[in-house]
Design goal:
With about 200 residues, the chain is an alpha+beta fold. It has one domain (about 20-165). The protein is about 30% helix and about 25% strand. It has 6 helices and 11 strands. The chain has helices spanning about 1-15, 35-40, 45-50, 90-95, 100-110, 115-130; strands at about 20, 55-60, 60-65, 75-80, 85-90, 140, 150, 155-160, 165, 185-190, 195-200. An 8-stranded mixed sheet has the order 3-2-4-5-6-9-11-10, sandwiched between helices. The chain has a 3-stranded antiparallel sheet with strand order 1-8-7, with no helix packed on it. The protein is globular, with a radius of gyration of 16 Å. It starts with a helix and ends in a 5-residue tail after the last strand.
Length: about 200
């Protein structure tokens, strides 16, 4: 939920202007036909990138690799909460470090564990070295126009504008000058965490 609050603050005007959508059930992407699910995952990055990336699809037991890529990128529909729908493409660094935590989360959700249990296990994994934070700069593409986030404390989903994220382990807003919460301004999400990012929304042309 901390990440959700950060993103809602960041997107500010974008979310205020967006139409909210009632979602009576989780936005499981495995409810879509297979080819649509692949296209949804690939929509996170330009086709020159996502077309050569490894692709994961969410099944009821967790993520399943359905294509081995050739460029080091990995694309999937991420779910930072069970209601979110976040087409995402990690670069090679993120595929080696952050992606394993995402795969673990869905595997544990499928086993019926609570979000609190899963978070505690991920946190412990970073502490004991099972998981590693990114060791160098890199990019996460989230350029799809089909992403949705849950508004904390409600049953509403809001569309997320296409954006880019850059690895910034343990960073906070102070590290980037605490910019105002305004359109097109960068913001740190998951502040202080090993998988913190700087998020940037490209200006529309």
């Amino acid at each position: 939920m901390r990440k959700m609050l950060s993103i809602v603050v960041l997107l500010g005007a974008n979310l205020a202007a967006a139409a909210q959508t009632d979602m009576p059930k989780p936005a499981y992407d495995f409810a879509l036909p297979r080819e649509e699910r692949i296209k949804l995952a690939e929509s996170a990055a330009p086709p020159e990138i996502s077309g050569q990336a490894t692709v994961y699809l969410l099944e009821r037991s967790g993520y399943v690799k359905i294509r081995e890529g050739t460029n080091g990128f990995s694309c999937l529909v991420d779910r930072q909460t069970p209601l979110n729908l976040e087409p995402t493409c990690f670069d090679a660094e993120g595929s080696a470090t952050t992606l394993p935590t995402r795969l673990y989360v869905e595997e544990q959700r499928a086993k019926g564990k609570s979000e609190e249990q899963i978070k505690a296990e991920i946190d412990e994994g970073y502490r004991n070295g099972k998981y590693k934070s990114p060791s160098k700069p890199g990019i996460v593409y989230m350029m799809s126009d089909k992403g949705y986030l849950l508004v904390p404390g409600t049953n509403k989903l809001v569309p997320v504008p296409p954006h880019l994220m850059f690895y910034a382990p343990y960073a906070t807003d102070k590290d980037i000058g605490s910019p105002p919460s305004a359109r097109n301004m960068p913001r740190v999400i998951r502040p202080g965490q090993p998988d913190a990012y700087i998020i940037v929304i490209p200006r529309a042309r």
